[in-house]
Amino acid sequence: MSRNLQVAAASVLIGLIVLGLKGAAYWVTGSIALLSDALESIINVAAALAAFIALRISGRPADDNHQYGHHKAEYFSAVLEGVLIVLAALSILREAYYGFLDPRFPDQPLNGMLLNGAATVINALWCMVLLRVGRAWRSPALVADGKHLMTDVITSIGVLAGFVLVPVTGWPQLDPLLAGLVALNILWTGWGLMRESVGGLMDAAPPPDVVARIRELVSTHAAGAIEAHDLRTRHAGRMTFVEFHLVVPGDMTVAAAHAICDRIENALETEMEDTVITIHVEPEAEAKHKGVVVL
After folding, report:
1. Which regions span the lipid bilayer (predicted)?
2. Which range of residues forms the domain containing residue 33?
């Protein structure tokens, strides 16, 4: 099992543990805010399962029907997670509405706080792991899962704050009101996840700093060529696709031009893992005198 799949499988297990703790917290308190937190944890488990399946698919090698690989499967997982977050938020808003119409003080608030607090600590620690490894391994599915857990952590902190304020203020409506605010925060996060994932499905370019580094590497390692133009980049999951036209002197041999291409490819692949590079070699008559200037 790959390292990505191991982390995704661990997310499912941790999600089930957190769901159990939050479900118990709601069971002993009857709090609408804790119910909202538990509902979001159900989505966490479903999203972790979706991420696991997507990572299994994206890890498959290229085949006759998918000659560029299956890397975009991770974006479908992230979009699905965003949809699930939105559905969870709408469900929480519904519960908050009915709870506001018929407010009540939570039962056993201390026990609820302890259970929810333990779940929050577990989520916070795992969230940091997912975000760190997801970004390091360029995995949209793991990053999306980490961002989702971050919203869950924020949610839980808000719920715990509400537990303190409800008995202090003597205002039971604060419990469903807090649940409603949590739902709005979840909606915002879900929208952000879907927006980023759709960008990946639409072959969005890598971040500007990555594109700038690609141009720099091409310029530095293309000695002997004249220029590189029509540079295009896109990313799909952990893969980055780079293609451009390389202009060389008209009398340069094929072997010499090929050696320059090999040098550029080695430089890009050494610094940027999981990169697919396509170079079209042209004679100097095709120079556009723009694009990447060879140093």
Report:
1. 7-28, 34-55, 75-93, 113-133, 153-171
2. 3-201
> What string of pLDDT tens digits covers the 295 residues of the chain?
677 788 888 988 998 999 999 999 888 888 777 777 787 787 778 778 877 887 787 777 778 887 777 777 767 766 777 777 777 778 778 777 777 777 777 777 778 888 988 999 999 999 999 999 888 877 777 887 787 788 778 778 877 777 777 777 778 777 778 778 777 877 776 777 677 667 666 777 888 888 999 999 999 999 999 999 999 998 776 678 999 999 999 999 999 999 999 999 999 999 887 788 999 999 988 888 777 767 5
Overall number of domains in the chain:
2
Other C-beta atoms lying within 10 Å of the C-beta of residue 263: 16
Residue 72 · residue 201 · CB < 8 Å:
yes
Give the end-to-end CA distance of the chain in Å, rounded to a whole number.
Answer: 44
Report the CATH number that the domain containing residue 7 is assigned in CATH: 1.20.1510.10
Q: What is the secondary structure of 176-242 as a DSSP string?
A: HHHHHHHHHHHHHHHHHHHHHHHHHHTTPPPPHHHHHHHHHHHHHH-BTB-EEEEEEEEEETTEEEE
